[in-house]
Each structure stands twice: as structure tokens, then as C-alpha cells.
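job 3f2a | input accepted
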Amino acid sequence: MGTVQESVTKIDATAADATLAPPTVPVRARQSLPPKGSCWYCEKTLDSVKRFCNKACADGFDDEAAFTP
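job 3f2a | predicted structure (69 res):
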């Protein structure tokens, strides 16, 4: 079986390996869009930082992107 110290050392080594590489998160199509001064979905005027006026428009854009080849 082994000592408690050996078990803890093995767990610490495994945890350290897991923290080296961050998990990959899929990039949504909307995240690659540059801000253009209006909503990419409904064309409502926005500032020069935002891409969508609200979450409903962002979700609508994602839905359309999923079904558009």
C-alpha cells in the first residue's frame, strides 16, 4: 500500500501537472468580430467597444452562425 506521505506527494504532482495547461474553451463566432459602432445582429447604434446591444442579439447571432454554412 504505501505511506500517507507517498500518497499526498502523488496527488500534489498530479495537481501540479493539471495546472500547467489551461483548459481550452471553444471560441464563438461572435468573439472574433471587430466592433463596428453598431450591433452585428440588429444594427442598433453602439459605442466603439461593444459588438452587440444585448444578450438576445448576441445569442441570435450565434444561432444564425450555427446554421449558416
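job 3f2a | The chain has two helices and no strands.
job 3f2a | closed
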